[in-house]
Amino acid sequence: MNESQPLIDHIQKRVILNEDEVQAFLSYFKYLKIRKRQFIIQPGFVAHHKNYILKGAFRAYVVDDNGQDHTIQVSIEDWWISDYNSYVYQKPATMFVEALEPSIILQLDYKDEALLKHQNHKFETFFRIMAERSVAHMQRRIITNLTMNAEDRYKEYEALHPDIVQRMPQYALASYLGMTTEYLSRLRNKRAKKS
Amino acid sequence: MNESQPLIDHIQKRVILNEDEVQAFLSYFKYLKIRKRQFIIQPGFVAHHKNYILKGAFRAYVVDDNGQDHTIQVSIEDWWISDYNSYVYQKPATMFVEALEPSIILQLDYKDEALLKHQNHKFETFFRIMAERSVAHMQRRIITNLTMNAEDRYKEYEALHPDIVQRMPQYALASYLGMTTEYLSRLRNKRAKKS
DNA sequence: CGCGACGTTGATTTGCCTCAACGATTGTGG
DNA sequence: CCACAATCGTTGAGGCAAATCAACGTCGCG
């Protein structure tokens, strides 16, 4: 039993690999422990890696001209995180990616990912599937942001990701949902009174 | 010279194909004329196709519970359009995709796309690249929506896509940018006075 | 020409933000 | 292991960006 088993399962759910292929795939990943509050990506530096989370939680956020945070992505175990604009085009990042908890990641370098994709059609397929699903997911988020008010966005997120809500600090959730911490606090409190 | 030449160029910019491969790829596309205001995707029906626009313009939008439109995507020549949540998972669409002008599209069926991807590593690569770039693009849009006010979103869009702004009806642009037509009208007018 | 779709303008309202002050909880060094 | 600071969340008062509602101008098209 390998410590990277969750990643193996993750891949096997999407493409079928034999033992050699699994080993070839894994051989490119770097096992890393990350402390709470540590950054794995920072603005100005190119995001050289795609990060699979074995344990812990991360958030990706930008800081606007007024110094306000805006959380773009939150990820926990069995998800990936990076600044995809930086990663895909290999240009400087605009985002911070920071550990919300002590975490363990498996890191894949951009060049190694390119090698993997080129080396084996199945690996290419795997990354294609990942990207397609990300597109679908982001489209849903855009729809949510355009169509719902603050309260409904909160309710929806809570219904979809109750596990993540509990582990995420409130300021991160608020800025992910596009509202202030004060306003989210009011929403929560308003509901508490009803029951 | 083929009427599908723009699609050939589009592909060759991303992967290098020989003549046979180009023909194999094209053989799956259906050439279609679409009238202005015609729908190519409607809520409740599965989006069976990915659509490459040879000529014309489309917008994809959802209608919320209050009957309001929200434009999710606008595309012109040399772009693709679909309801990706519906297409990727082959489940019923939530969006309308409607021609803004008389248009000509090249339509690829979901199953045929799957065949193409399986048949040739390069085709798989092509679709992977498309999806990756969509992810990056959508991430930028999410950031814009979270960090900018209405006026700045309008300015940014106009700077990035001056050609599209001119061809798009105002209500479509407003709902794409997440504001009302009235407010967009005011923004434009405000600026007109300055000069 | 006349109708329907689109855009404009004004008056009013509101959802959410800002600012400020204050509790609660977490983390840390002595 | 406690004390104190820093971080995080709560609550209230007031303000503003953008929405809503309504009425009217305009353009394209059957």
How would you describe the overall organization of this protein?
The structure is a homodimer of 195-residue chains. Chain A has 9 helices and 8 strands. Chain A is of the alpha+beta class and 195 residues long. The first copy, chain A, has one domain (5-184): Jelly Rolls, CATH 2.60.120. Chain A has a 4-stranded antiparallel sheet. The longest helix of chain A has 27 residues, at 121-147. The first copy, chain A, is 50% helix and 23% strand. Chain A is globular, with a radius of gyration of 18 Å. Chain A binds a DNA duplex (30 and 30 nucleotides) through residues 149-151, 169-171, 179-186, 188-189.
Layout: helices, strands, pairs:
The structure is a homodimer of 195-residue chains.
Chain A: H1 5-12, H2 19-26, E1 29-34, E2 39-41, E3 49-55, E4 57-63, E5 69-76, E6 80-81, H3 84-89, E7 96-99, E8 103-109, H4 110-119, H5 121-147, H6 150-160, H7 162-167, H8 170-177, H9 181-194
Antiparallel strand pairs in A: 1-8, 2-7, 3-6, 3-8, 4-5, 4-7
Chain A binds a DNA duplex (30 and 30 nucleotides) through residues 149-151, 169-171, 179-186, 188-189.
Features of this protein?
homodimer; 195 residues; alpha+beta; Jelly Rolls; four-stranded antiparallel β-sheet; 8 strands; globular; DNA-binding
